[in-house]
Amino acid sequence: MPVTDVQHDLDALTLTITAEFAAPVERVWEVYADPRQLERVWGPPTHPATFVDHDLTPGGRTTYYMTSPEGEKYYGYWTITGVAAPDSFSFDDGFALDESFTPNPDLPVSRNDYTFTEVEGGTRATYVGTYASAESLQQVLDMGVVEGASSAINQIDDLLAS
Q: What are φ and ψ of residue 29, in 5° steps?
């Protein structure tokens, strides 16, 4: 299992997930840079993702939806704030109301920093989400973000091996 650690800190307003992959940094980067690969690992296995737009450049926007086993769609978007390929990228991640990808004002937006570091021939990925308030972080924790994100990240090994 790639996920090696999960920490949430209500005082620092952060959720940090650490994972390790038996692949070089450049290969792990490709998973996030290519929307067709990203679709295979972004959502939990029961809620596969479909990326509509994917512009991984500063100021770019990525839009996607996840589909439940019952066919319900859950929409989200990223606003890319920084890219240092293949080592890191940053983005604001939000929930959207519908296929228009209009931000949902009732759900939190997080600032995310994803970094990929070479370790012993593989890659350590550190995923840090920062929230505006402890209430916002608690809201996504209550929604199951740790379980959902961990199960999504744990799918990356199979993709890297294929």
A: -55, -45
pLDDT in tens, 88-128: 999 999 999 999 999 999 999 999 999 999 999 899 999 99
Tell me if residue 23 falls in helix, strand or coil: coil
> Is the pLDDT assigned to residue 144 strictly greater than 90?
yes
CATH at 71? 3.30.530.20
What's the mean per-residue pLDDT of the chain?
96
pTM attached to this predicted model = 0.95
**C-alpha span between 21 and 19 (Å, rounded):** 7
Sort residue 90 into left (φ over 0), alpha (ψ -120 to 50) or beta: beta
Quote the domain boundaries for residue 64: 3-161
Per-residue 3-state assignment (H helix, E strand, C coil) for 48-113: CEEEEEECCCCCCEEEEEEECCCCCEEEEEEEEEEEECCCEEEEEEEEECCCCCCECCCCCCEEEE
